C-alpha cells in the first residue's frame, strides 16, 4: 500500500475500550494529555462525525495529527475545512489547513515526544529521535492539520 493511502483500522477489543474510555472522560471535561473530541461534518451526509484526538501545541501553533493515516475524519476534514473540538461542555469552532509533507518532521517529532506511549504502534518503530530524512520519508502517511 502506498504511503499516501495508509490507513490503520483499529477494531480490536482493547482499541475500542480505550477509545470509549478516552471519549467518555473527555466528554466529561477531563482531558488526558490534551485529548479532545473532534466533531467534523461527513463529506457525503453532512452529519456530524466524532472521534477522540490529541491536540498538539507546538511552537505556539495547534495541530491535529492522524497517526492512523488517511482515515475518515481526515477525508472529512479535507472537504469541510474545519470542525469543532469538544472538552466537556466547552466547544471550540476552528478552521484547518493541511500541512505540506515537507513541513511535517518537527511536528511529527513533537507529537511522538508527547504521545509515543499511545501511538508508537502506528509509527512502525519510528520515534521522536528519528532523523529528519526518516520523518520526511513517512510524512505522506501521516496527515497533519494546523488549526486556525
TrEMBL record:
Gene3D superfamilies: Electron Transport, Fmn-binding Protein, Chain A
Pfam family, one: F420H2_quin_red
Signal peptide interval: none
Stretches that traverse the bilayer: 20-39
GO MF terms, alphabetically ordered: oxidoreductase activity
Presence of the UniProt keyword GTP-binding in the record: no
Lineage: superkingdom: Bacteria
InterPro entries with a match to the protein in the record: F420H2_quin_Rdtase, Split_barrel_FMN-bd
Keywords: Membrane, Transmembrane, Transmembrane helix
NCBIfam families documented for this protein: hi_GC_TIGR00026
Protein name: Nitroreductase
Amino acid at each position: 500500500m502506498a504511503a499516501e493511502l495508509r490507513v490503520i483500522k483499529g477494531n480490536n477489543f482493547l482499541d475500542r475500550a480505550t477509545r470509549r474510555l478516552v471519549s467518555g472522560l473527555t466528554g466529561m471535561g477531563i482531558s488526558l494529555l490534551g485529548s479532545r473530541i473532534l466533531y467534523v461534518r461527513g463529506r457525503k451526509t453532512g452529519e456530524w462525525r466524532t472521534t477522540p484526538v490529541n491536540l498538539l501545541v507546538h511552537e505556539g501553533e495547534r495541530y491535529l495529527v492522524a497517526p492512523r493515516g488517511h482515515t475518515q475524519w481526515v477525508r472529512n476534514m479535507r472537504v469541510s475545512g474545519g470542525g469543532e473540538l469538544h472538552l466537556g461542555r466547552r466547544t471550540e469552532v476552528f478552521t484547518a489547513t493541511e500541512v505540506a509533507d515537507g513541513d511535517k518532521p518537527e511536528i511529527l517529532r513533537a507529537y511522538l515526544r508527547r504521545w509515543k506511549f499511545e501511538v508508537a504502534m502506528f509509527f512502525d518503530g519510528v520515534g521522536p529521535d528519528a532523523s529528519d530524512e526518516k520523518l520526511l520519508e513517512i510524512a505522506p502517511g501521516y496527515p497533519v492539520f494546523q488549526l486556525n
